[in-house]
Amino acid sequence: MPYRTFDLTEAADYLHLTCSELAQLVKTTDIPHEHRGARIVFVRMELDAWASQRILGLPPKRLADYHQKTTRGTRSFFHEDTLIPELLRPGFIAAAMASKTKKSVIHDLVALAEKTGQVLDPADLLASVEAREELCPTALPGGLALLHCRNYQPYLFEGSFIVVGRTVQEIHFGAPDGRPTWLFFLICCQDERIHLHALARLCLVVHKTDVVARLLAAPDSAAMYDALVAAEQTVLAGKKPADAVALG
Predict the structure, then answer these.
(1) How far is CA 190 from CA 44, 118, 198, in A?
(2) I want to staple 6 with a disulfide (CB 3.0 to 4.6 A). Which of 10, 56, 92, 141 is the partner?
(3) Angle at 223 between CA 89 and CA 220, to 5 degrees
(4) 187, exposed or middle or buried, with CB in 10 Å at 0-12, 13-18, 19+?
(5) 1-248 in CATH: which number?
(6) Where does the pLDDT of residue 181 fall: very low under 50, low under 70, confident under 90, or very high at 90 and above?
(7) pLDDT tens-digit map of 19-42
(8) What is the CA radius of gyration of the chain?
(9) Rounded CA gap, 229 and 167, in Å?
């Protein structure tokens, strides 16, 4: 239901914020919202695009603050706060993807996701990921991209998971630093409470560790998986409580 609307309380819960924090964002930033009489409402599809793009562009301190909020909001889903071992397997990683263009990367990642057996509608998944990239590229500086759906629909997946592809040649994927991309994550989340947390966690792991270099140097998918698990553990071991809103 991409056109589902949230009230202030529902939207705050969806974004892992308090109502007062969200009300402040309505006053001071361009967060998408509508006034319907005396009520403020938020269209889920618009919130998805706004929140995911903000997370991808947050500086490290604000990202860490927001990550603390998403961790608290999803603690019931993940053992000891670890996310990567729950969502990723070595078999979900393609260490030598032969993609040559942006379009073929997306097609190959969706095909890899389909091999997990958890994709219920591959055609809709492909269309949604392509639509998200058309909206704004998900490539980050440093050689990786965090692809995800334009809208999150429970009917697309049996569960939540991540697949990872490493291409054998550089791909120009729209990174803000203008450099090519080699590593591609496709985040597939069934539960709407998880996908923002997964984005925040992966961004933080990239900011706080040398995982990109380790992934590029890893000899195979098993070594890539081990590098990601170790990097997440490094981040979790150094986490500190935070109390500031980070999405604004």
Answers:
(1) 15, 10, 12
(2) 10
(3) 95
(4) buried
(5) 3.40.930.10
(6) very high
(7) 998 999 998 877 999 988 889 999
(8) 17
(9) 20
